[in-house]
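[agent] plan:
  1. take the single chain provided in the ticket
  2. run structure prediction with default settings
  3. attach structure tokens to the ticket
  4. add a short note for the reviewer (M.T.)
[agent] executing step 1
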Amino acid sequence: MAQFARREILVLLATAAASPLLGCARGAAGPSGPYSQQTVAGCLVSPEATQGPFFVDEKLNRSDIRVDPANGSISPGLQLRVVLHVNQVTNNTCTPLAGATVDLWHCDALGSYSDVRDNAGGSSRDTRGKKFLRGYQITDRQGKVEFLTVYPGWYQGRNVHVHYKIRTNPSSPAGHEFTSQLYFDEAITDQVHAQSPYSQKGRRDTTNANDGIFSRGGSDAMLQLSQEAGGYLGVYRVGFLLT
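[agent] step 2 finished; step 3 output follows
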């Protein structure tokens, strides 16, 4: 599967809802080196972030990723609804990208990923066979996908984040793929992590300010968070430079 040209991503700030061509800024940090910015259709383009742990192609087509289909259990934690608006940049225009596969995955309230033997941050928790907090959706005609999940916990050496991967045609080598991470406001994380079950793990050891991946552009990869019934809504606008 082909990668996007120069492994770059266009990030459209959530405040630009009225027009996908306005309010554009840099996106998540690339896996190496500083940003190589350019402007396309009035928008700044910048590299994708490292994939990080632990992408598993479970092929779980579902919006509510809280339930573990292996045993029907529900991941504990504060509800988080994630809405992504995906756009494509071609011929100097920005338009919704319909029909793309968007995977979302992250650790649970206590910092563990599902379906891995050796977990993140030095944890020895074996979660093989479990499939909590993973799933994919297909972008609609407006380039939108929505997931229902829980606010992530933390693990040693990383700030609080979620991972996402976008593929235009997963079964074809001619398709395009992009992987990155999204981040959270520290003040909101403090409030959420003071509650159970997050509080069982104690204070996180890494914040946005001292996270190595976040330091390379993560401030432009922040979920736009607002409170809603049951928890939080997180919105983010992202698009691809397709060549």
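[agent] step 4 note for reviewer: The helical segments are 186-193.
[agent] ticket updated
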